[in-house]
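An instance as discussed:

___
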Amino acid sequence: MSTLSLRHLSKSYGHLRIVKDLELEVESGEFISLLGPSGCGKTTTLQMIAGFVPPSSGSVFLEGQDITHRVPEKRDMGLVFQSYALFPHMTVSQNISFGLEMRKMQRSQIRDHIDEALQMVRLSGLGDRYPNQLSGGQRQRVAIARVLAIRPRVLLLDEPMSNLDAKLRGEMHVELRALQRRLGITTILVTHDQIEAMTMSDRIAVMAHGEIAELGTPRDVYDRPASEFVYRFLGHANVIEGEISSTNGNSAIVRVGSVALPVDVDESVGSKLKLCIRPERLQMSRPDEGNIRARVVTRLFLGGVWFYELDSDVGSLRVTTPNTGADQPEEGSTVGVTWNRQDMQAVAPETANV
């Protein structure tokens, strides 16, 4: 049995549908991210799970029990807000104890829960400090400790790291994921940050227009997404438009201008396709060695990688290559571009956008 089940969950405000008939099963101990652009319905979905927003239709089940109409404080869930929502006039220990006191827990138990929570987030010894005496990363840990202290069955994270700088955010991704695995707590994260979702999640639900456009492991949704939307949103994508000129079983030749590209796809002759491939799956070579020829328009050094924009026989292409210390093609030079056939995926026009 799933820990959390969303069944035909919908939310509308008048004629505006924010979440549309959403179905999702979250397993015990799983870390799942709701990822998508602003306005896609991910935050509204989290608020319905937490009980802050009533659904227009559908149900929320927690370990087999219907909690759709249960008040938030009776759902046995812990929510970490984007703003942390710490009480500035309370010490770290007092902030953590607040939820425990609301649950009428005995003073001796509260002390044990506070100590345990502080140890979990590596803040032992800082219980007497106030929020303004802590760094951004420490304040975030206090917000997490406050939730963990009540020992919820489900941990809900509403973009909790968006206020941190990039370096600290990356460190917290690793720390929070390690903590979640150690505790085995079922966790749902709402984020618009693709790196955050891929770093921390067991599965990612990519949302668009109130629906789940793609659901799978980080590798699955990145390497083999079903739509152009997911290709473009979850990383960068080169999109090439062409038409099938011939077929042979489950393979076809796609004509892009004067270029013929072999693609693994089961479509009929004359079908128009969009071909998607990631920039890091393209390799540059000598002009006479590639699948196609291209001219280097832009070259940028980004430390660990080189970024290129190419003007090729099939249109504009982006290429990223690792920085190995070797010499790289200069702007204005002609190169060959090659790729593995299985890395180029066909997406039909009618499913290209969600």
